[in-house]
Amino acid sequence: MPNQSPGESRRDFLTASATLAGAAMIVPHVHAAGAETIRVGLIGCGGRGTGAASQALRADPHAKLVAMGDMFGDRLEGALKTIKNDDDITKRIDVKQEMRFTGWDAYKKVIHSGVDVVLLTTPPAFRPMHLKAAVEANKHIFCEKPMAVDAPGVRSVLATCREAKKRKLAIVAGFCYRYEKKKREIMKRIHGGDIGQITSLQCIYHAGALWHTPREKGWDDMTYQLRNWPYYTWLSGDHIVEQAIHSIDKMSWAMQDEPPIKATGLGGRQSRTGPEFGHIFDHHAVIYEYKNGVKLFHSCRQQKGTKQETSDFVYGTEGTAKILSQRDHLITGKKPYTHRARANDRTEDMYQNEHDELFASIRSGKFINDGEWMAQSTLLAIMGRMATYTGEEITWEMAKKSVEDLSPKKHEFGALPVAPVAKPGETKFS
User: What DSSP string runs through 140-153?
Assistant: First the structure.
């Protein structure tokens, strides 16, 4: 399901117009609190899409899954079978055969199938075009992170989200930590001065190996890359953009979404070097610097057999905020604070919370629009990749105005050469 074509106009990140040419300005129907059905369509039937569909149905007792789309039929049918296994929601799953769409235009067919809400959970390369098409059709949206894989895509997303605000459409981002209650509480304390003035930040996303799908007889290059999308920058943005962006987003949140002025970094491939792993790096380390001198130190890796860690630290003049795991949130210093989440507590489920708030906003007519900050966090991660791929110092202005478009010339099945692995000092910024 394709991204924008290379020739499509994309406006500046900060001055993007909200105009979407040719789209009718139709105010969407507001589903008032009550028993009125909200029809849901899923676009992208991988693991995250499957989870998002289940969470959407649990978010509102009258939400109903009626349409699904994916590039591949086996993925769609597998996801549908999985969702139906959930006894608490299975009665609200009614995806008839004619409402199961596959191929490059599956997203269009779902959007125009009569749904009210679309869940955008394909590989991130396709997010800008899918988001734009959904807003043009006046649909409310759950939009999984990241929002794009390059700066032109981010500019498109920002323009689309501004248009959505005009049309009174809800857009909730899949940056799930922003919807986690314990994260909100510790961020409230950070922003309230409980650690004093922020002096530096550190975030770590050290993961193990990912899955890989072996090539099957009859698969062309495009099919193989789509089936193994995390390993190709044009599809995923590299793992600093696709996965570790969660950590970068949390640190941006701590900084109240003030963008940094520049970034430097390093990265490469050490353990994941085979052709089956495409051309992405297996580790990145980036230093972001803010205009007040504060620095954010970020590192991420995906390497088999290494120590795994996901943690965040915000250092201040009067204390330190520590997010040491999914459960432990601490502040040490003048105003100490401890929160340890209770196991199996639905109110602590950040994935469910984001859907709960999306559907509540649709029912109330007080529509959430995460557009500005979700676009900025996406560009922050892309900026980090620019720094690690090139070895250059990348300023925020450079990142905003980058013209690098990672999309292939054509979105079609067939031959698709793999881009060379980036070489810092040789790969140039564009």
Answer: EEEE-S---SSHHH
Q: Across the strands, what pairs with 265?
A: 286
Note the pLDDT tens digit of each residue in 54-88.
999 999 999 999 999 999 999 999 999 999 998 89
pTM for the complete prediction? 0.92
Phi-psi category of residue 344: left, alpha or beta, with phi > 0 → left and psi -120 to 50 → alpha: left
CATH 3.30.360.10 domain extents, the chain = 181-342+378-401
Q: Please give the helix or strand (H or E) that residue 38 lies within, else none.
A: strand 38-43
Q: Name residue 128's amino acid.
A: P
Which residue type sits at 118? V
Is the separation of the CB atoms in 109 and 34 below 8 Å?
no
Strands 63-70 and 38-43 come out as: parallel
Q: Which fold has domain 38-177+352-371?
A: Rossmann fold (3.40.50)
What are the pLDDT digits (tens) for 215-258?
Answer: 999 999 999 999 999 999 999 999 999 999 999 999 999 999 99
Q: Which residue intervals of the chain bear CATH 3.40.50.720? A: 38-177+352-371
Residue with tokens 């072996």: 214
CATH of domain 181-342+378-401: 3.30.360.10
